[in-house]
Here is the input.
Amino acid sequence: MDLAIENSSLEAASQQRLLIENDTREQIAFSAGCVQGYEGPVLAMSERRLRDNAQKFKSAMPRVRPHFAVKANPDADILRIFNEEGCCFEIASSAELQAMIDLGVDLETVFYSNPIKSPASIRDAAEAGIQWYVVDTPEEVIKIAAIKPDAKLYVRTEVSNEGSLWPLAGKFGASASGIQSVIETAKEYDMEITGVTFHVGSQCTNIKNWIDGIQSAKSIFAQLEASGWTPELLNLGGGYPVQFTGDEPSIAEIGEAISKELETIPQSIQVMAEPGRFLAGSAGCLVTQVVGLATRDEKRWLYLDTGTYGGLMELADGFHSNIISQRTGETGMWTMAGPTCDSIDVFGEHRLPTNMEVEDVVFITNLGAYCTTCACDFNGFPVPKLVMVD
Ligand SMILES: *Cc1c(COP(=O)(O)O)cnc(C)c1O
Here is the structure.
């Protein structure tokens, strides 16, 4: 009996490994065209995968309308593709608002989900026709009341970020007493709160966080009703993970649990989510090149032409990554670093062939989100060029 359990979990583990290996192979295949005539780092984005991810998300939770979190990757072609796939959008700044205007979407469907907005950006949004604004402090309610008194507000509640690789709790999200003062301020300023949102943190692998969020939204809906408002929006936020190790729950599993919990939410309430990483992440593979090798006190160092400043900030912070070379053979640990002269431009130890050479091309998978958009050309090293491939 014990042996059978062990065998089946071993089998599951090897299936996960196979899944990741296949996925990695596919990502290298779609970016292979960027290797010939290499001129600098490239983020290859697969159009097919972007469309696929949008469809997967929608079929995993049919009641939930996806609003792509523009900050994950604001490239105009990516926005166009998600728009064609029927996704809506979530923004956090005037520049992201402008991207929506350029895209030509109906601005009433765009949600302004940054809890702290400058007065100037609220004016821009109000003028453009944005209806929905998030709040999680009384101060923000007052700020919006002065600029757009007929705004539709949704309140962001705090929720556990346990099990998220990139937690967002603490900076945003109102506690129970915070929610109460947001509600009181809204009443005082004659503003209406009819929605609830939360954010479980990015790359969240703990399904329970969304379930807890939905449950606390239900009790906040009751508070809103008690204040004389009619709840109409539940916004599940972002955080849906990319498969880096195969241990992450799939979008189908997450969707199943969320859909089940949503059965307790009245049909009169529209449900949306704000996936960023999930929609774009696995559609992007970074193609980069080795610029130098070094041995320093027994440690083998490998320097790439892009690094912490060039889009690999999350790797530097210990995020999962799959780094692959075309070279084969015996592998060993390399300390990886970017090309700049800054000592923070180092991103951990990774396994690669021991016979790596300068000018070898290296692939880093799952970088379609938060790579180029977080990159700058510090020290004169160009940010990876985004190239759309099939
Ligand atoms: C960043 C962010 C998202 C997207 O998060 P992902 O982890 O990329 O899915 C969604 N909503 C808000 C308010 C955000 O700040």
Summary: The chain has two domains: 30-44+284-389, 47-280. The mean pLDDT is 95.
